[in-house]
Amino acid sequence: MSLAIFDLDNTLLSIDSDHAWGEFLLEQGAVDPVAYREANERFMADYNAGTLDMAAFLEMALKPLADNSPEQLSAWHQQFMASKIEPNILPKAEELLARHRTKGDTLLIITATNRFITAPIAERLGVDHLIAVNPEVKEGRYTGRVSGIPSYREGKVTRLEKWLEDQDLTMEGAWFYSDSHNDLPLLEIVEHPVAVDPDDTLREIAKERQWRIMSLRD
What we know:
With about 220 residues, the protein is α/β, with parallel strands linked by helices. It has helices spanning about 15-30, 35-50, 55-65, 70-85, 90-100, 115-125, 155-165, 185, 200-210; strands spanning about 5, 105-115, 130-140, 140-145, 175-180, 190-195, 210-215. It folds into two domains: about 5-15 and about 90-215, Rossmann fold, CATH 3.40.50.1000; about 15-85, de novo design (two linked rop proteins) (Up-down Bundle), CATH 1.20.1440. About 50% of the residues lie in helices and about 20% in strands. The protein is globular, with a radius of gyration of 17 Å.
């Protein structure tokens, strides 16, 4: 039995849930239709290029959580799950999760997307353990700020190390599945790194290092 770690966006899902949530908010008329769309697209491009300013992105991404009531956010998220997430859960991803589950492995999703967006997705996928960006909450409402270290790039490793300590688990025999070169810091320290429908940069590195490359979309 080992630890099986999964990136979420464009790995288990065929979309980026953070970007899709931004599109959903635009459809609801909940954010500025021009400025927010431009920023959402720019930050997505920066992420793909490996140049994302995470602090600037989170300032934008978490503001709608602070601007709306928990009740409104919950209602929106239910719609979001039905319209954006459910159609983009990859059947082969669910099969992969099931294979690791059958082996008795501990399943963990680790993502740079915030917990408000991703906790219901992890629950839908039957994954009990989630490391995500934690939005700060005070007196029952989101503040628009981040709590702790964002789980992005090297931050994923830092957060994972703390999680392993809390869970009394080790990285021995661990797997990590990801599509993104942004996840190289974590891919480089697991025994079984797997590039899943990888971006061009990760594909080249995976070939050079003879990592397994697989698709969950074929």
